[in-house]
């Protein structure tokens, strides 16, 4: 690998110096003693140098000695020897009375040929402002994430309070129809609170579905199943990681389907009921399944009419580009949300 640029035989050192002097970029042309042969006007303007006196000055004596950096000089000597080239080397330029500047340096040996002494072209870019802007942007993103986490916690806590009020109201009312409606509202508020709580402890961008579904089902079971011996709720998922907005939709679907199973699948069973949540993805797409071993789907006159939960599942599935498939397990019911890639 060559670490120098050979110039055409009729290209004179004077032409190289003229190009450096007229460059709009901060450039230095250095000799083998690490002394300045030529400097661009932009370099002098950027670093407070006198263009009339800079030529012939050792780089180490430039300014107040702030360029006297042993590591930089060692790299420049290696560049002269052809053993290396400086590529995106960063250094801090410390000047009295000024804030440190972060510089990005690149150096290349210029070989003129015909016995001419080689030179090194050093380009200097002040990236202080760019780094400061990047840090400010990162700080703003971090602050936004903290505020978002706090908001999610507050929303989840508020939903828990609302759910408690709904449950207390359900215990006091006399109308059975009103009580059922209040219970349904309580379940849905609890489902949203559960999702908010899970998202509050998840990444703001990516969510690992295995842990997400495990925690979701644990929360649903704790809040909606009064007797774990009567009904168990378990989940299984692969190692899929998805965006937070997708996980919210999947979580809402799971919650609605679990609520449906709890309401209708085990009307009289005393123990041993099972609800399973499963997620599996491959190169062909993904499938989310919620199944139970309950009484199955009523037929004929006893068939249930599609309700709010069914509409929610179908709407969320369409948003995800998936279809809903319902099958009778005999016993039990299996609902699959299928997305084909």
In short:
The chain is of the alpha+beta class.
Question: What does this 3D model show about the protein?
Answer:
With 341 residues, the chain is α+β, with helices and mostly antiparallel strands. The protein has three domains: 4-126, PAS domain (Beta-Lactamase); 129-201; 206-341, Histidine kinase-like ATPase, C-terminal domain (Heat Shock Protein 90, 2-Layer Sandwich). It is 43% helix and 24% strand. The protein contains eight helices and 13 strands. It has helices spanning 13-22, 41-47, 70-81, 128-172, 176-200, 209-224, 244-264, 308-319, and strands spanning 4-6, 27-30, 36-39, 86-93, 101-111, 119-126, 206-208, 231-237, 241-243, 273-282, 285-292, 323-328, 333-340. The strands form three sheets. Strands 1, 2, 3, 4, 5 and 6 form a six-stranded mixed sheet that branches. The protein has a five-stranded mixed sheet with strand order 8-10-11-13-12, with helices on one face. A two-stranded antiparallel sheet has the order 7-9. A hairpin with a 2-residue loop joins strand 10 and strand 11. It is elongated, with a radius of gyration of 35 Å. Mean pLDDT is 81; it is low at 1-11.
Jot down its keywords:
341 residues, alpha+beta, Beta-Lactamase, Heat Shock Protein 90, five-stranded mixed sheet, 43% helix, 24% strand, elongated, disordered N terminus
């Amino acid at each position: 690998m060559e670490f120098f640029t050979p110039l055409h035989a009729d290209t004179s050192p004077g032409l190289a110096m003229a190009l450096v002097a007229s460059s709009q970029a901060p450039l230095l042309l250095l000799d083998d003693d690490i002394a300045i042969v030529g400097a661009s006007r932009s370099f002098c303007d950027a670093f407070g140098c006198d263009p009339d006196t800079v030529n012939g000055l050792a780089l180490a004596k430039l300014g107040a000695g702030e360029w006297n950096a042993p590591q930089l000089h060692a790299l420049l000597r290696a560049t002269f020897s052809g053993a290396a080239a400086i590529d995106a080397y960063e250094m801090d330029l410390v000047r009295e009375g000024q804030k440190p500047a972060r510089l990005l340096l690149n150096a290349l040996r210029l070989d003129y040929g015909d016995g001419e002494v080689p030179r090194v072209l050093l380009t200097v870019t002040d990236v202080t402002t760019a780094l400061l802007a990047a840090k400010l942007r990162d700080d703003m993103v971090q602050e936004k994430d903290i505020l978002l986490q706090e908001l999610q916690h507050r929303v989840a806590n508020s939903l828990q309070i609302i759910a408690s009020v709904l449950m207390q109201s359900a215990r006091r009312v006399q109308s059975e129809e009103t009580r059922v409606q209040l219970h349904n509202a309580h379940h849905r508020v609890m489902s949203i609170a559960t999702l908010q709580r899970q998202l509050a402890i998840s990444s703001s961008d990516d969510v690992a579905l295995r842990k997400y579904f495990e925690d979701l089902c644990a929360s649903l079971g704790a809040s909606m199943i009064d007797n774990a011996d009567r009904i168990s709720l378990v989940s299984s998922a692969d190692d899929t990681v998805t965006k937070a907005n997708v996980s919210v939709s999947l979580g809402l679907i799971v919650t609605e389907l679990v609520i449906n199973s709890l309401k209708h699948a085990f009307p009289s069973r005393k123990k041993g009921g099972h609800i399973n949540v499963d997620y599996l993805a491959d190169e062909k797409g993904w499938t989310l399944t919620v199944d139970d071993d309950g009484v199955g789907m009523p037929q004929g006159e006893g068939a249930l009419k599609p309700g709010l939960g069914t509409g929610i599942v179908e709407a969320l599935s369409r948003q995800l580009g998936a279809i809903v498939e319902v099958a009778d397990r005999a016993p039990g019911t299996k609902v699959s949300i299928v997305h084909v890639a």
